[in-house]
Amino acid sequence: MIFASFHRRSLFSEAFFSMNLIFLSTFFYLNALISSPLIIMISEPRKKDKT
Questions:
Q1: What does the pLDDT average to over 15-25?
Q2: Domain count along the chain
């Protein structure tokens, strides 16, 4: 009985960890996807001002 509950808990923690990992990776991917065009848009006028 104790072993079964422990096994279930470990499975839950593993699933939670993997979901967390997927969420974090997608968050960072979207963050990079959104921020890179913004950085280009911000740095573009500065390059034009120098020339």
A1: 91
A2: 1
Confidence of residue 29 (pLDDT cuts 50, 70, 90): very high
Q: What does R_g of the chain's alpha carbons equal in angstroms? A: 22
Mean pLDDT of 21-34: 91
Owner of token pair 């009985």: 1
Global pTM value: 0.47
User: Of 41, 38, 40, whose CA–CA distance to 30 is shortest?
Assistant: 38
Question: Which range marks the domain in which residue 9 is found?
Answer: 1-51
Task: Measure the CA–CA gap between 22 and 30, rounded to whole angstroms.
Answer: 12
